[in-house]
Known about the structure:
Shape: elongated
Number of strands: 7
Order of helices and strands: HHEEEHEHEHEEH
Strand order of the largest sheet: 5-4-3-6-7
Number of helices: 6
Radius of gyration: 25 Å
Oligomer: single chain
Amino acid sequence: MKRRTWIAGLVGLGVLGFGGWAAWRSSAHKAPQANRSLTPKTLSPEVQTFFDAQLPDLQKQPVSMREWLGTPLVLNFWASWCGPCVREMPALETLSTEIPQAKVLGVAIDSPDNVTKFLDKIPVTFPIYVAGHGGISLTKALGNTQGGLPFTVLINADGELVETIKGEINPEVLESKIKQMLVS
């Protein structure tokens, strides 16, 4: 009698265990993507170079660019001595406030003193990092082989390079490209 009870108990536990496992598998496949564990995508080498960088902010504190991973970005490489860079800065400020879903980041290829003096005259609310002349290697890694300024890069929330713009931006065209990036 005891042996039959043990066998019946083990079979019952097996059936319950299998039923629980089958129910879990079924519900896990129907779960929305947000409820699943997300595996980070492999970033392209050029974008990886940017996200691996640590750039000083205006207070000269190093900031890991990895903190921006997962955010749609508009990276603008500029310098205070660059005429087209100076002309496009107000348009970038406007875009940063009108389309807050995409984060505009300024990366100055300049000295901290020049950047501070420039921002006293033309203030912006988006984050500015001071890469100095070493920032040219970042622009080259992102596709700006000649290292010219200004240079603007769109990176989507998945960390994919969407667009590069060499030279002064056209605000209407850039706005359209940002909006396309946000919906795709």
